[in-house]
Amino acid sequence: MTDLTSLTLAEARKGLAAKTFTSLELTDAHLNAIEAARVLNAFVMETPDQARAMAKAVDEKIAKGEGGPLAGIPLGIKDLFATKGVRTTACSKILGNFVPTYESTITSQLWRDGAVMLGKLNNDEFAMGSANETSCFGPVGNPWRREGSNTTLVPGGSSGGSASAVSALLCMGATATDTGGSIRQPAAFTATVGIKPTYGRCSRWGIVAFASSLDQAGPIARSVRDSAMLLRSMAGHDPKDTTSVDTPVPDYEAAIGKSVKGMKIGIPKEYRLDGMPAEIEKLWSEGAAWLKAAGAELVDISLPHTKYALPAYYIVAPAEASSNLARYDGVRYGLREQGRNINELYENTRAEGFGAEVRRRVMIGTYVLSAGYYDAYYLRAQKVRTLIKKDFEDCFAKGVNAILTPATPSAAFGIGEKGGADPVEMYLNDIFTVTVNMAGLPGIAVPAGKDAQGLPLGLQLIGRPFDEETLFSLGEVIEQAAGRFTPAKWW
Amino acid sequence: MSVDAATVRRIAHLARIAVSEGEVPHLQSELNAMLAFVEQLSEVNVEGVEPMTSVTPMQMKKRLDVVNDGEIADDIVANAPATESHFFLVPKVVE
């Protein structure tokens, strides 16, 4: 039998249906891989007993012909998703040993459809970061290394554990969340596929909140088809999230292989940055050529407010975070540091429980919302956000079906290499992805090639609201042309 | 705009995060780096532009004004650091 961990989700589904192997065998293969890859620090909690119990139960269902669309598929869950009875920390000390008494909507839908939970995945503390270096459990290693080097690189963030685990074949797919690029940037750094769906497509209920108007969950997977299968189970209306949209979830997988002939693909000139590596420029042109060869039409477009998306994000996101994170007060759950009075208890708890990046963002958010500064910062940023969204709407109104851009301005970098002196250096990682969150649009990152040092690079496709299907169709064209990329095992 | 040391202390207090004197200069420079970065927004003409309130054009959904949850006091206090018969315990607030 071939190594079960090397299958795609779609291949595993076939094998399970044909009874070539059982979910328990598939699950055990992944549990063994996780154990052998602890040096990557991708999992912050392994749940082997629960995984085997779930796998056995689903094997019985498969035998009776009652398996759901993800029956028997072992997945990793970002530690931002509340999982009933399983510690959920957002990788922050302040949540301590928080054990939810409820299940997030998205994970409950995955279990409904037969998926198996392998454990909880590392991420940046409260999803604030672009390198998975702010986690209270320490950094995650990228399975990819530069050719001829044994320096450990970051997997990107905030969904670094998800990307690393999928890339290293530790799980068949993973849940992730994306507030400014946290699905797409790590996917690009690890040669995995990541899609952030339209805002409102997936329920946010039971996901630890960072910036509620930007947060959206999605999958990281081994192929475009796998990501389509996972999103179908994750998406859907949830009365418990008032921003969740009540429209039917299409069969995303049916979009794979659909012709892209005649589709208009926008190439935005503002994404051509000074000092961008020539390899990324080249990859972008190659991607455009692949889509053209498949029958799509390339059109030059302009998104004039692009450069303001990142600064506007660093007002809106911290402002919302400062409000969302007010709940961590040492009273109702998580860490408590004593104080002589209630104020000291709050202040000591939050000083001890929040890491440096979270503290910085909560403070900036508090400042931009404070009396006298609200109009100058927050209100202005929300107006700029309207303009950013309008840029996209204008392009879509001219018939553009999707927009092609690089996913990141560079390949993965070493642990501790960026953002030490100036936090903004790290923030620039999200320059191509953050616009999509600001406009609430869907975006997919697909592996497209490697740089001169052998590190993966990705391309991003941005779609019209609720048109994830077009992204899957186009994404698969890129995947077919570029091929799949697997890291050489060193761990 | 930039913040001085007194403002850093004031923000920290508003955010209910204890900050030692020694941390103030470092925090001040980090916050000022972020403020310098967002400063470029001042060059955008936002005259007559509506601030965004909802990224997807949708009507705010409303729930019926009925009780549809409850009787889960055990769950609510399950993760609390200190409780007593379904109450959260905090230091004395009222003398």
Which secondary structure elements does this structure contain, and how are they paired or packed?
The complex is a heterodimer of chains A (491) and B (95).
Chain A: H1 9-17, H2 23-36, E1 43-46, H3 48-63, E2 74-78, H4 105-112, E3 116-121, H5 160-167, E4 173-178, H6 184-190, E5 193-196, E6 216-221, H7 224-234, E7 264-268, H8 278-293, E8 297-301, H9 309-324, H10 342-353, H11 356-369, H12 375-397, E9 402-406, H13 423-427, H14 434-439, E10 443-450, E11 456-463, H15 468-482
Parallel strand pairs in A: 2-3, 7-8, 7-9
Antiparallel strand pairs in A: 1-3, 4-6, 5-6, 5-10, 9-11, 10-11
Helix pairs in contact in A: 2-3, 5-6, 9-11, 9-12
Chain B: H1 5-14, H2 24-38, H3 73-77, E1 83-84, E2 87-88
Antiparallel strand pairs in B: 1-2
Quick recap:
The complex is a heterodimer of chains A (491) and B (95). With 491 residues, chain A is α/β, with parallel strands linked by helices.
